[in-house]
Amino acid sequence: MADHAPATYEMVEVKAEDIMAERQSLYAGFMKATTWSIGLAVGVLVLLAIFVA
């Protein structure tokens, strides 16, 4: 079997300030995509109501 050296890991503290900008940008993108998808769904329903009914 292969001989493995013991792995050492250095753990660093992650503070909220370090990740808040990334999280806020992801949330803003999620909210924008949600708004567009809801608008698109409403538009499709309106078109269905016009052309099918």
TrEMBL record:
Keywords, comma-separated and alphabetical:
Membrane, Transmembrane, Transmembrane helix
The UniProt record lists the Cytochrome c oxidase subunit IV bacterial aa3 type domain at: 22-51
Question: Which positions, given as ranges, span the membrane?
Answer: 33-52
Q: Name one Pfam family in it.
A: COX4_pro_2
Superkingdom to which the source organism belongs? Bacteria
Protein name per its UniProtKB record:
Aa3-type cytochrome c oxidase subunit IV
- Species of the source: Falsiroseomonas algicola
